[in-house]
What we know:
The complex is a heterodimer. By secondary structure, chain A is of the alpha/beta class. Chain A is 46% helix and 12% strand.
Amino acid sequence: MSFRTTLRGETFVFADLRELFGRANEPKSGDQLAGVAARSERERVAAKIVLADVSVAEILDNPMIDDDVTELIDRDRDKELGATIRGLTVGELREAILAPDFVDTWAGGMARAITPEIAAAVAKIMGARDLISASAPLRVTTSLRNTMGEAGTFGVRIQPNHPTDDIAGVTLSVLDGLLFGCGDAMIGMNPASDDVGTVIELQHALRAVVDRVGAPTQTCVLAHFTTQLAALGQGAPIDLLFQSIGGTEQTNRSFGVSLDALVEGKEQVLEHHRMRGDFLGDNVMYFETGQGSALSAEAHGGLDQLTCEARAYGVARSFDPFLVNSVVGFIGPEYLADSRQIMRAGLEDHFMGKLLGLPMGCDVCYTNHVEADQDTTDQLLILLAAAGCNFVMGVPGSDDVMLNYQSTSFHDAAGVRELLGLRPAPEFDAWLESVGILSQGRLTDGAGSGPMSLPLLGAFPELGS
Amino acid sequence: MTEGIGADPRNLPAARAADQLGLREVTPARVLLGRAGLGYRTATQLRLRADHAAARDALSVRIELDDPALAALSQRFDILEVATRADSLATHLARPDLGRLLSDESIEQIRSSCASDMDLQILVGDGLSPQAVIAQVPLLLPQLIAGAETRGLSIGRVLFVRHCRVGILNAIGDVLAPRAVVLLVGERPGLATAESLSAYLAWQPRSGHTDADRNLISNIHVDGVGISDAATRILDFIGEFRLRDQSGFTIKEPARPGPGRAVQER
Lengths: 465, 266
């Protein structure tokens, strides 16, 4: 069925939902690359106007792509509650979401009734402040070794990457981050090598640092999930099972991921946790996503990148993950061209994830071949903290020396916590206070002050042993 | 992996110990920076700006095979320059799809002057950091070729691909039908270094193959994977491919510490 509208005397026609969804997006270079973007600003707004009048039922009843992700999303949604919003238009749903009582409806199960495509549709007709204000009340709390996502908290993943996976170097980055109060979300390292032996060694090393300083947090080595499971099979301590995922079956295949294998992997990690027996909760999965990944794998199936991204969240949701991370500026200028597009995408992703009930975080970042700089990350970081984002990255001096891009730093994260009065996860917060890194929520004078601070953790003499 | 801090520093004050043990030498990461309030020290703030400026400017460097840095290498191996369908730097950055395809002219050139069905086809691509190619390829390529010869592999004519994306592996596979293909390509320039090279490896690549069918050795640069190590690891991977008649994520690198696979530019 086609859609049409007349705007200021000009008629716009959209062949089907898929075309309408693409045209209604805010500008993204990836949508232009895919040939699904609006061809004029007038057409973009015309598409938004048409989309606002499309009913939720229409979107629910007309899947835009036929694959295992669509099947999963359909299987996983609460159809009974979904029936109560079928009669709304996308525009009406936007207003319902902005109403003060929506948080109760959402917490009452509506999060599971909303599908990724619905979340994407609403995001397309929201402004930046809508995306922030609508997200802020939607708190998604998860637990593993600590509790992430409570109101008033703001988590940070320490990302201690190293170009040769040198354990002393990695350990120093971890300690540096802890001394800024970072690391409650996880100590999550991207290994330069996907070799099983290296991953095992890194898993043990990260666990050793965390145990030694006594920090209540989880560790993760972000190799391919099959490599992590191979490491698990050889005795490596796995807290979180990581995998990059996308919003189409074909994207996941390009990542070497089948949903069944991922389900099996989760079961293995849960079993491993039952044997280790020292976990608060059972949210064991950690996913990373990002607009443009489907197109990058030539696997978008004609869908726009916002919708593909939302569908990746549909995949994530079925695994009850501990955290989900939209790595928003990593992919490069062919998908998000500049500062403006990165900021918009970051806010959209966070909103859609929260609306769908995910513990959403964001790697606020950019690469050197995109039109953005540290001011971009400063701005998006503050906007996302205001939006209630579960966690961001902490990279030494913002510069990831292995993946070659810039993210947010320990300084950035600590600074924004203080600016907005946000705290780390409660268990981690208590630990930081107990070792003297924080005092009444503020970084102590001795913390984060270079080598002078290392004795606070007492772990430094053990570094090389 | 823990040299440099093996001494017992338990009795030293931290600052002195940190210096004495060369703590910051264990990582190129920007650790132990201190702070101004919760901001960077002024020197840190401006150093970040300076490094970003250098990385930005590095993007626009253009590789010429007859430049002094590459001329000898180019002559020695009779490197053939070909091009993708991305005909400018701007197009290259914005249109990865075009950077994965050979221009019609280049396809003709390759057909008429390169041997097909070889055991090993080596490609050099500018990718996103011409400086990485200039810095690493003159060292790596001779070692790689010497190693391949020692192992008795037949080797195709080396191609330099301008405005190259990783997907060019498939296009070359379609034209020349080699068994193993190695693409030495400049990674996105980082702040710490713009000289980091990646080697993407594929077994009998064809249209439709994806990253799942490829293997990667990244971070080939002075602070990362060394040249000899990179050459050996590439050749070891190729050995695995031949043995298993496939490449990709199912092939795990034979156990050895050091970089192998990372999320990179496609």
